[in-house]
Hints:
Structural class: alpha+beta
Radius of gyration: 50 Å
Largest sheet: 4 strands, antiparallel
Shape: rod-shaped
Mean pLDDT: 76
Number of domains: 2
Helix content: 55-70%
Number of strands: 4
Strand content: 5-15%
Strand order of the largest sheet: 2-1-3-4
Order of helices and strands: HEEHEEHHHHHHH
Amino acid sequence: MAxxxxxxxxxxxxARAKRESSKGIEMFFNATVVNDNKSQKLIEMEPVSSxxxxxxxxxxxxxxxxxxxxxxxxxxxxxxxxxxxLRTKSDNSTHSSFQGLGETExxxxxxxxxxxxxxxxxxxxxxxxVKELSEENDELKLHIEELETQNDDLSQKLEKKKQxxxxxxxxxxILESIGIRKENLRRPLAELMGVDEKDDLKKLPEKADQxxxxxxxxxxxxxxxxxxxxxxxxxFEVISLITxxxxxxxxxxxxxxxxxxxxxxxxxxxxxxILEYIEKKKDFAx
Length: 286
């Protein structure tokens, strides 16, 4: 048995263990000796830091014919291994019947190799699955953002329609309070709200919606329209003119007129006073 053979054998194993340790992996080793074609594991899962010392002691005390070292990581996974034949030349000729490792050791090595490849394959499959799920998640996020944007747009449009119907209803209340019948307000208010008179005005908001226009049945409305007298027709024309004027002015003037209508609703005598004031202004101007 040559000391140089053991030193070279341990040097190669230490080099491999050092490469793995540089990756942050803690390394361990098993030592198996073979004498008279019988193998025996004498060291199991010992830190690599004690490899040289314990193997040298083992060789001196057991004087094995064959020494086998296996390297493992901290998860118990086989990393590498090597076999050192410590017999002299005469021993080799005497024990020519020895054929190396036994069937059990060979099967164990094959099984470890198979498990390692299986884990690598499963890991690759898991990585691919995670990638697919991540892509699907990104697509779902984009779809949710699109739906949220559409929902915000629809909510804004709905709110604008509610406000327009509300103020149109308030205007209807004001005009009705100065003597204009509500059935004659339907068409001009429909034009103001931008709705179809046949469909939407049959379902104008009730008083609970604070719109000021009471819902009436379509048949009753048709009958009243057919029997409207001349006075009603004149009032309708007035409402149409008012509607056209309101559609042509800016929001500031519309708000001022709304304030005037609100004051007239509170005190109907203000209408005559305002007209009298306007006539005086015209006379003064002329």
